[in-house]
Amino acid sequence: MQTESSTLVARSPKVTEFLSKPRKLLIGGKWVEAKSGKTFKTLDPATGEVLAHVCEADAADIDEAVKAARAAFNGPWSKLTPSQRSRLLWKLADLLEQHTEEFAQLESLDNGKPLAVARIADVPLAVDNFRYMGGWCSKIEGNTIPLSAGNNFLAYTLREPVGVVAQIIPWNFPLLMAVWKLGPALAAGCTVVLKPAEQTPLTALRLGELFAEAGFPDGVVNIVPGFGETAGAALAAHPDVDKVAFTGSTEVGKLIVKAATGNLKKVTLELGGKSPNIVMGDADVEVAIAGAAHAIFFNHGQCCVAGSRLFVHEKLFDQVVEGVAAKAKKIRLGHGMDSGTQMGPLVSDEQLARVTDFLNSGVSEGARAAAGGARHGAQGYFVQPTVLVDVQPHMKVVREEIFGPVVTAHPFKTLDDVHIAANDTIYGLGAGIWTRDLSIAHRLAAKVKAGTVWVNCYNVFDAAMPFGGYKQSGWGREMGHNAIDLYTETKSVCIKL
User: What predicted TM-score, i.e. pTM, was given to this entire model?
Assistant: First the structure.
């Protein structure tokens, strides 16, 4: 792990201008202050610098946003044809693409991730998702159904939008997670109240400006930054919200479910993970080492699917661990806007405290750091990329989601041993398998309880490929046609002829 100093990329004039003004709430097509008059600060996690002041929504603002979404759903939005919705989503994608550098810089500043990553991953994937979902608007179809009662009846189904949707998104991929939720909801004909994470509200707010520029009717998308205990709780419990979609921790996901029981609103959840990454004895060692490092250190380990439990066949264990540790030690930490940075800071002081507490817990229970193992530096929320060995299944660092650049390494002997160990978790979001044997790949992929299994790759996402989890990793799927299904209701119509 290294720290290199180089010149920070200059902020674009548009970014500087955007940050210079207090950022308001988007409700009913208008930018308004919070009814309470409260604001909160959003910080640069690399320095602690205040980037901007943001209006803080609470229950009163949430109520206004839900009313605006309902009015749009019952009014102008429902009158548009599917092809008109498609054109709006494609126009939005074009605008986002035109502003790639601006969004990448805002994401890097607010979240801490390297600017280069935001440029080539976060923004382009968001653009592609809007384009893909725009294509679905005109392809949401029902069916005709032959009835056993005979030919005297015509039965068919309609697919209709759920209605007003609350969407609560996390801070690890602020723009991309917003788009993953907005795209299918809008394609299906729903209207949205979106609450970005309080740590990272900036790209969602800038995206709100593009909705108006693209020509979306007022109130179709409302954006209400605020805190989970106030704005998020009010949104999840609101009686006029038809569905809530949440991405975040499993603990908060359970609170969302409880809040949704008031009107039994539909719920989809994309929650935590403790994903196994399995290196079989026949794997290409160098490819597996690079893949294992990418699986855990991408986005500073702040990924729900991070390959945080590395299982390596005993004959390759020392070689793979040494290789991943060597890569960890060479990762250049720095400000996200530094062109030489390979890993930025964690998102907040709270997250830094959480990750360092896990590291201390691991050492106290007997784990040993083959690389890293501590905070890095005194300024910003940096933690060393860490590889822990001598770990046991009962340890906190093995059982619980850390959400940082920390991987535990475990040797194994047989296929049966590793699939049992891989599934020994409350989570089931992602998994990786590294092998040259196609038979082993298929057999093991079938045994691992995870929503996505990557073979000889990791962190590959596509707008057409469903994403979500088994067990306590959530309910439902993002992306692909599965996401469209979750934003529609099926209505049966039966007519006597």
Answer: 0.96
